[in-house]
Amino acid sequence: MKRKTFDCVEMKNRIQRKRQTEYEGLLLDERKALMDKRINSDPILGPAYRELLERNKSRHLMVAEDGPEYRTGLKGNG
């Protein structure tokens, strides 16, 4: 059996604890601004994130629901 040298779950937990400490006491808008700043300043994530935001500006929210039969899944028995 191969011995694991990297534990991604432990790394995720460590980073999450660090972020929780950094965000402690901040309002939601302040947290969002800090996250946005970090993502945008990243040389790899920043360009991809900005491209995604730009692409999504032109999309519209579409709702498939047009009547009660959508919620129940029954047509004509509304």
List the helices and strands and how they pair.
Blueprint: H1 8-23, H2 28-41, H3 45-57, H4 68-72
Helix pairs in contact: 2-3
The helix-strand sequence is HHHH
Cα-to-Cα separation, first versus last residue? 58 Å
Note poorly predicted spans: none
Q: What is the arithmetic mean of pLDDT?
A: 82
The biggest sheet, with number of strands, parallel, antiparallel or mixed sense and barrel status, is: none
Helical segment count: 4
Oligomer: single chain
Number of strands: 0
Helix content: 55-70%
Output the radius of gyration: 21 Å
Quick one: overall form? extended
Beta content:
under 5%
Structural class: mainly alpha
What does this structure look like?
There is one protein chain. 62% of the residues lie in helices and 0% in strands. It is built from four helices and no strands. The longest helix has 16 residues, at 8-23. The mean pLDDT is 82.
